[in-house]
Structure formats: C-alpha cells, structure tokens
C-alpha cells in the first residue's frame, strides 16, 4: 500500500483535533509506518489505530511547483 521513498499527506486525530502533515516513507511493516517529516523528525505511525484517518500521495501546491515555498 505504501511505497518506500515516496511522500504522502497524512490526516490523523491528535488530542481531539484533526491534524495534517506530510512525510516521506522510510519503512513499512504493516500496520506500522516509519516516516520522516521535513527531513528531520522520525515518526512511527500505526495505520490500524483509530487516530489514523487517511494517507494519500503528496501533491505539491502551486506555490511549491513555482519555487515560491519549500517544505
């Protein structure tokens, strides 16, 4: 389901709120995902957790594709 080296957008429940972030997949051993965010922090995400809402392949914004911002 997940491709190592590919970046995804994640949506999760975080302390009663919905959070969104992007991360690059480092390792995938179902149901656990190991990813990096902003090239720094390593995160382990349990995709079978009720906190996990969804993940989809990351699509850069028009600002990123024009080089106006970088993530």
How would you characterize this protein structure?
It is built from one helix and five strands, in the order βββββα. The protein has 71 residues and is mainly β. It has one domain (7-59). The radius of gyration is 13 Å and the shape is globular. The two termini are 24 Å apart.
SSE topology:
Elements: E1 7-14, E2 17-29, E3 32-37, E4 41-46, E5 52-57, H1 62-65
Antiparallel strand pairs: 1-2, 1-5, 2-3, 3-4
Helix coverage percent = under 10%
Strand count, sense and barrel status of the largest sheet are: 5 strands, antiparallel
C-alpha geometry: globular
Proportion of beta-strand residues = over 45%
Strand arrangement across the biggest beta sheet:
4-3-2-1-5
Low-pLDDT sequence parts: none
Structural class given helices, strands, pairing?
A: mainly beta
Number of domains: 1
Label this structure with key terms.
single chain; 71 residues; mainly beta; 1 helix; 5 strands
């Amino acid at each position: 389901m997940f491709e190592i080296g590919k970046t995804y957008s994640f949506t999760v429940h975080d302390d009663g709120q919905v959070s969104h972030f992007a991360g690059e997949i480092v390792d995938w051993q179902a149901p656990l995902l190991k990813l990096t965010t902003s090239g720094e922090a390593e995160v382990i995400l349990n995709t079978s957790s009720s906190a996990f809402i969804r993940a989809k392949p990351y699509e850069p914004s028009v600002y990123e594709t024009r080089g106006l911002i970088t993530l």
